[in-house]
Amino acid sequence: MTNYYSIKPINLSAYRTAMVDALNKALEIFCFHGDAKIDQVITNGLYPIADVMNVNRIIVYRNIDINGEMRLKQLYRWVREKRGLAVASLYFLPDNLAINGWLDILRQDICINQRLSDMSDDEAAFMNIYGVKSVFVVPIFTLGEFWGCVTFQDHINERLFDDECMDLTRSFAYLCVNAIIRDEMVREMAEKHELNRVIFDAAPVGLTMFDENYNFIDCNEAVLEMYNVSKTFYLTHFFDLSPEYQPDGSKSHQKLRETMKRVIKGEKLHMEWTHCLPAGEPFPCEITMTRVKHKGKYLGLGYIYDLRGIKRMEENIKWLQSEATKAYLDPLTGINNRRYFDENLKRVVKTVSRSRNKLTLMMVDVDFFKAYNDTYGHAEGDKCLKIIAETLSKSLTRGDDFVARYGGEEFAVVLPNTPESGARKIADKLIENIRACDIPHKHNIVADHVTISIGVATGKGGRNWSVSDFINSADEMLYKSKKDGRDRYSFTSI
C-alpha cells in the first residue's frame, strides 16, 4: 500500500457525506439523550443510518452463554414498516450451519457483506425464511471479547453494501451498542465508567475533549493509534500535530482556536482538516465538533475520522479491479476468457435452477479454421479470431448476455432468461453477422469466406441443473451442425 502525502482536501462522495451526517445525528441521539428511555433512544438513533443505508431492518444481537453454549440473543429489532422497534419474532438465532459459519467469521472481527444470490444453500435457506435479500453484519467486541453483532438488512433489493463506508458503519454499530451497554450498566449499577470507556475506545473513530479554557483534557485510544503517540504527548503537543497552514490557506493554530470558541458557545461544526504525524507527514481527516454539559460546565468534543485508510482503499480497489479484469480477459481477443466463462456460467446455472427462468448456452466453432491458419498464416488467423470475437460481442445487446473464448477457435455464448424463440433468433443473427464480415477463406468447403457452426441448448429453471448438462448438450448440437454441413446451428431443449 502507498502512503497518502498530498495535503489537498478530499472530495468526499455524496454517499459518504450522507453517512457522516447520519453518524453525527446518531451520535447526538445515542450519547446525549438525557433521561429518555433506551427503547426510544434506540428507535430515534437507528432512523438516520437506516435511511441513508436504505435498509428495512436493523437488529442488535448479544452473545449469551446458554448452558455452556454461546448463542446470539436478539436484543432490539428495528422495523421500518413498524416505524420503530418491534416485538422480537426470533428470540435466539438457531444453532445451524449457516449461523455457525457466520459466527466463525464475526469472531475474527470481520464484517459480513452478502446478497442472497451469493450465499450458500444453507445461508440462503435461512435468509429466505425472513425475506432477507441483502445483509451487512458488524461484529462488536468489548474488553477483547466478542459481545455480539449488529445486522443491517435489505428485504427488497439484492446488493452489496458500500465498503467505502465500512468504518462509519462500524462506528455507528459501536455507538448503538454503547448506548445499550450504558443503559444496562445504569440499571445494574455495575462498573459504569470503566465499561463505557472501553466500548467507546473500541470504536474506530478518534475522540478529543477540551474544556471551556480550550485545554485538551482527554482522548480515546483510537486517536492515539492515528498518531502513534502517548496520551500525554498528544494532549500537550496537540497544536504541533497540524501543519502551519491548512489547504485553504488559513493558519492551523488560529483556525483551530476560533473553531473551539465557536463550539463552546454552542455551534456544531463539521470540517475537513489536515493533521500531521510527529515526523511531519501530513494526513487528511474529517472532524465533527460539538459540546456537552458536564457538572455544570461545557466540554468540547472533537470526533476525528482518519481518511488515510479510505484513500489507500480506493487505490487498492482500483488496482484489484485492474488485476481482476486482466485475470478474466483473453489476451488475444480482449473478450472474456475460459476462467470467466466457467465461474459465471456456474453462477448463472445456480440462479436459473432456483427460478422458473430459462437459460441458453451456445457453443460456436469457426469452420475449417486449421485450414485457414495453414493457408494464411497464424498472424492472419489471430486477426480473424479477433474480428469474430468482436462481432459476436457486438451482436449481444442485453447486459446479462456475454461471450467468452472457450479455447482455440471455439467460443461460448451465455444468454440468461432466453427461451427457444429468442435463442434461434440470436443464433441466426450470429451466423449472418459473421458472414457479413466477408473474411476470405478459399479452403472453406461451404463458402468462400469464414463461417461458423453453432450448437444451442436451452434449459428451463426449476430443475437441479449442472454446468455440464448445458455444455454437453450444446457440444452435441455443435457436432450435429458440423455433421449436417456447417454454417448453421442446431438446437435442443433440455
Q: Briefly note the CATH topology name of the largest domain.
A: Beta-Lactamase
Mean pLDDT: 85
What is the distance, rounded to the nearest whole angstrom, between the alpha carbons of the first and last residues? 50 Å
Segments where pLDDT lies below 50 for 5+ residues? 1-12
Number of domains: 3
**Structural shape:** elongated
Helix content: 40-55%
The tally of strands reads: 16
Instruction: Assess the beta-strand content as a share of residues.
Output: 15-25%
Structural class assignment: alpha+beta
What is the level 1 CATH name of the largest domain?
Answer: Alpha Beta
> Largest sheet, if any?
6 strands, antiparallel
Query: Please, how many helices?
Result: 15
CATH homology superfamily name of the largest domain: GAF domain
**Rounded to an integer, what's the Rg over CA atoms?**
30 Å
CATH architecture descriptor of the largest domain: 2-Layer Sandwich
Strand order of the largest sheet: 3-2-1-6-5-4
How would you characterize this protein structure?
Helices cover 43% and strands 25% of the residues. With 494 residues, the protein is an alpha+beta fold. The protein folds into 3 domains: 1-8 and 205-319, PAS domain (Beta-Lactamase, 2-Layer Sandwich), CATH 3.30.450; 33-202, Beta-Lactamase (2-Layer Sandwich); 328-493, Reverse transcriptase/Diguanylate cyclase domain (Alpha-Beta Plaits), CATH 3.30.70. The chain has a 6-stranded antiparallel sheet with strand order 3-2-1-6-5-4, sandwiched between helices. It has a 5-stranded antiparallel sheet with strand order 8-7-11-10-9. Strands 13-14-12-15-16 form a 5-stranded mixed sheet, with helices on both faces.
